[in-house]
Amino acid sequence: MVTVNIGMLHYVIDHIYGAFMHRSKISPPFFSRGWGGSKLELLERMIKDLFPEVEGQNLPPRLIQPIWRTVWETKTACLREGVFRTTCDEQLISALPPESHTARVAFLSPKYVQPQKMACVVHLAGTGDHTYDRRLRLGGPLLKENIATMVLESPFYGRRRPMLQRGSKLLCVSDLLLLGRATIDETRSLLHWLECEAGFGKMGVCGLSMGGVHAAMIGSLHPTPVATLPFLSPHSAVVAFCEGILRYGTAWEALREDLAVQKTAMTLEEVRERMRNVLSLTDVTRFPIPKNPNAVIFVAATDDGYIPKHSVLELQKAWPGSEVRWVTGGHVSSFLLHNDEFRRAIVDGLNRLEWKEPPL
């Protein structure tokens, strides 16, 4: 009788998938155009500006007024799509590709329920998630719990993808930081709209993999308590691109050549160290503790080939009061098989928030 180590099997599946996606010639590697030159320097400065000098003094979200159209509606639910100009400041807008200047969002909500008696969760994209569909499927069953779902189309993804970019393979390292900073700004504005314009009683933000990193950053920076739900997420992009499977899909030689053009000759190991330094800006443990850490629930996989366990535990340690839940599986299998666990975390995180008092 042959016994199979199921955990190892999940881990191997992650590596097989990673080899197919990132080591084959099907698509180009990440960052094939190099570091991004002056854009990278701009982004490094602007991400440092996210951190408040004094705790609690981070910049307020910018106001938005999305233009909505109805996609479909039934007797009990309605799906709308909204568009608005990205809420990045002008320096960032000039660095964004023109295709990313307009933000798009899908909004699935129950009908005939007062907003102050509903919650809404903004779902952020993981690497390669170019459409609304997967996240709407995750949020759809929550309608019966009076939880609405808002799905943001990421900059550099879907209809916001630059013309020269193939799939999810960002052309420059600066694009990764730009994608993150724009996602943070836009989502904070959406949460502000949900609270102040739409009048929702509770809000949350969730995301899978890269989207979970962004969700953690937003939960940290938002001025009011929100349920914060990172799924299968590292504490930093360093883990994904320098330790996990994505390191095999990174154009290290192109990055070295780009530095050589700038008169800096480096070994590949030195290039990787520079990448670590740049991506350390995405280390969520450096961000402030969220306003209600009890409403932070991480869902992590026991045998994740992309995200090592230590990375998840570092975030929990940095945010006392937060919770980690483990699902059995790897990155790919958990993404496919554990949607019920993700939904349970969403419900539980929202239940740990107080209902907002309705205006008099």
UniProtKB/TrEMBL annotation:
Signal peptide positions (record): none
Source organism: Dovyalis caffra
Lineage of the species this protein comes from: Eukaryota, Viridiplantae, Streptophyta, Embryophyta, Tracheophyta
Pfam families documented for this protein: ABHD18
Residue intervals passing through the bilayer: none
Protein name per the record: Abhydrolase domain containing 18
Alphabetized InterPro entries for the sequence: AB_hydrolase_fold (IPR029058), ABHD18 (IPR019149)
